[in-house]
Amino acid sequence: MPARREYDNTFLDLLRRGDRSAWEKLASELSPFLLHFFLTKYPTIRRALADEDLVQVTFLHAFTACSAVPHDNEAFWMWIFTVARHVAISALRRRKLEERPLPPKFVEGWTDALLSMPDAILDQQENDAELERKIAKLDDTEETIVRLSFWSDLSLREIAPIVGKSFAQVGRDLRGALRKLGNDMGEGS
Fold this sequence. Notes:
With 189 residues, the protein is mostly helical. 78% of the residues lie in helices and 0% in strands. The chain folds into two domains: 9-99, Rna Polymerase Sigma Factor, Chain: A, CATH 1.10.1740; 112-187, Arc Repressor Mutant, subunit A.
């Protein structure tokens, strides 16, 4: 394991601005730390690591919230490992849901219903695509909050440090984004 690196404010500013070369350098330097973190802190996650690259997912989440990169080195290390912890928890939750078997009657009933209603599947796919278009129209912060809340199953308290806002402001932003999505979906535009 390499020694922990001290990052100066200039480098952290580059990360905050989303500089690609700075993020690539960070990824190459921090990957061993994050992999070690995942394997020692979450030993049951080995199977999830085989299915998806949690280190890369961590960097993706961090890059998405790059404006929230803290201004000092200690806070940065806490922030990046908080993001990694959330990625690990989400992977473990998904794994638990995938491993939970459904009762046979439930599966049979849904299989029959889905086969008899292919239009319902197409309608659902169209609705999902429409929702994706509406989410993409939100401003960057609102989109990040919605995706972290619903796709990554993070609480508002967990999202706040990632986006660099207070818990209360994240809640207001989420409600505003959902209101916009509801209005857009109701208009059918």
